[in-house]
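To whoever is on call:

I kicked off a structure prediction for a single chain this morning and the downstream step that reads the tokens threw a length-mismatch warning. I double-checked the sequence; it's 208 residues and nothing unusual in it as far as I can see. Pasting both halves so you can look.
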Amino acid sequence: MSGAVLLISVLAMGLGTLGEGRAVFQGLDDQWMNLMSESSSDAGTGLARALDRLGGPLGMIVPLILAGCLTVYGRWRSSVFVLAACVMGNIVVVLPLKWLVDRPRPPQPWVLVNDGSFPSGQVFTVTTLVLTAGVVLLPTVARRCWWALAVALVIAMMWSRTWLHAQWLSDTVAGAAAGVGVVLLLWSAFARLLREEAVRAASGRLLD
């Protein structure tokens, strides 16, 4: 339920940017972008560019590697869950939203970007990756610390995209919300399969 609410909220945000009127959150976006007004040669830009690579092509390769490793160890249910959230989620959720909303990027981005600023694909990619990794790699008792690290990484990616003038703040918020929404929905859908996999792993029957 929470996942569906988040996705509907992201859609509503996107529809709020359409038309000739000014989006209700554009003022906040403009104020935040004014704060991101340092030179592109500043020290923070190196970190921002590194995070940009993580959310770009590398962010699509890592889920494929993770899914492949899970499959090798007989955890095909976890593998499908990771691919569905990180890869298919991008194709089914992010790309259609970018096409529908077609929001212009901030002026003069510091990195190479494509069309469609809303929602942030890089933030979505990192959000789905860190959340699915927590679900499939960590036991329940260890996830609380991981969620804190995941939040910090997602916030860092949101900062990176706005620091590089590649996206508006609201684009990054939407990317994070969409990523959480997709993972929550798929986690609920895969819950029974993941429980079965955990039972088989505990009994040493994953490869049976």
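Update from on-call: the warning came from a stale cache, not from the record. Cleared it. Sanity check on the structure: The mean pLDDT is 86.
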